[in-house]
Write a structure and sequence with these properties.
mainly alpha; elongated; 2 strands; 94 residues
């Protein structure tokens, strides 16, 4: 009797754990994209070429505290000649 109860409890616990982990595994990126990043820079007067498109392909991290730009995105844009604040703002849109 005690063994059946333990098995049932473990079964329920694994289903609950799977239900909590599954959304984290299958989460998709936010709706912002490379196009929003490149459009922002084009509106600021930058030439949008392959380096800018490549940098903008690195998506921002969306946290409960806000949007954090990807390091590879901001670094790539700075190397391409984009001003720091514009790179940060653009990468938050990626």
């Amino acid at each position: 009797m005690k063994l059946q109860r333990t098995k049932r409890l473990l079964s329920v616990a694994s289903v609950v754990a799977a239900a909590g982990v599954l959304p984290l595994i299958s989460a998709t990126p936010a709706s912002a994209d490379q196009g929003a990043c490149t459009k922002y820079l084009a509106n600021k007067g930058y030439l949008v070429g392959p380096k800018v498109k490549s940098a903008c392909a690195n998506p921002a991290l969306h946290t409960p505290l806000g949007v954090v730009p990807d390091f590879d995105c901001t670094h790539g844009l700075r190397v391409a000649g984009v001003k720091d604040q514009h790179a940060i703002d653009a990468c938050k849109r990626a």
